[in-house]
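Thread: Newbie trying to understand structure tokens

Hi all, I'm a second-year student working on a class project, and my supervisor (Dr. K.) asked me to get a predicted structure for one chain before our next meeting. I've only ever worked with sequences, so writing a 3D structure as a token string is new to me. If someone could post the tokens and maybe explain what I'm looking at, I'd be very grateful. Here's the chain:
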Amino acid sequence: MERHDVVVVGGGPAGLAAAIAAYEQGCTDVVVLERDTKLGGILNQCIHNGFGLHTFKEELTGPEYAARYASRAMELGIPCHLGTMVLDITPERVVTAVNHERGVFSIQAGAVVLAMGCRERPRGALNIPGFRPAGVYTAGTAQRLVNIEGQMPGREVVILGSGDIGLIMARRMTLEGAHVACVAELMPYSGGLKRNIVQCLDDYGIPLLLSHTVTRVEGKKRVEAVWVAEVDERLTPIPGTEVRYPCDTLLLSVGLLPENELSRAAGVELSAVTRGPVVDDRLQTSVPGVFSCGNVLHVHDLVDYVSQEAASAGRSAALYVAGASAQDSKRGRRLHIRATDGVRYTVPTYVDVAQMNDKLTVRFRVDNVYRDRYVSVYVGNECVLHRKKRVLAPGEMEEVVLKRTDLERLAGATEVVVKLEEE
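---
Reply by user tm_fold:
Sure, no problem. This is what the structure looks like when written as tokens:
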């Protein structure tokens, strides 16, 4: 069995950023395992711009953004094994993988960084009545067909779900000559970024139907039409509101699921809300030496945040390999970060006061659209942050910064609470 200090599972933007950061932290024995035949992950099919504004201070396309990290990894000489599927990870950090060149092989890792990304929720999870005709695609599949394979899924399109990929594909299909009749969203708010609603729907006159869903798909061999109905506050279709939209294509943008089958195999504790691992301030999971970052941890809205988070995970993995026993002996007061009153979840979930940096960025999402609310952070009974936000929406990731001095000063506290308040 071969051995490596840090094994990164996934060669997308998270995996590359983690590997580069681990190497630059001083851990030069880093290896990346990627199941695709090219580095970059999903960014390779995201040919629109808007990437890199935070990281590189300029607008890049997805392939351009990915290429910068891939080039840096090659400059450092980090081995990246493509076409390599990871089959299993044990709690002892034994990684089993397979590829054409070597067959099945195992690696004993000093630390593992999980960066497998996420997948789209398929039609089978929605229970839409009707046959199973051709013409029903997830938005990501349609994006790959158009942008990489040069194939048009259809010409008359209805999109269910207003996630960012669905919004972007509404514009992309329009630019390629298709007619997008509408984007139907089950919730009373969009699941995507505000800028994508404006640039991809409003600018092209594509209607966004909030509190609507597809109730029926017509057609046996090929989609012929879909029925869209308004839903009530219990998300139940309202009789008499159905409208028939003739179309040959239905695109689904109804949520992303972190790819955590390997995490489960390793015994990692998963969050019921994010469906990703529960991590501490070092992005370490419940299994010592196993770290997580990117969309496998929680679904992000900007790839720049993925890269920042992954770099932190990579540095933490390198530090773990350099002195795991010393780190464990330094463990001090561990505080739970609790999300409540409008905040769905936080990442991380725990913070170790003895080991944290001077400042810790805590990212979170809200559970509804709120206006003129305060984002408040309590350490014990003391409020250490109280910041007004004009608008908070589930599609936009938010963040607060915890200061180590506050946590040390309030030594009697047992938890940190992140919540929304009206005053």
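A couple of things are worth pointing out once you decode it. The two ends are 59 Å apart (CA to CA). Helices lie at 13-24, 62-76, 139-147, 164-175, 194-201, 261-265, 303-329, 404-409. Feel free to ask follow-ups in this thread.
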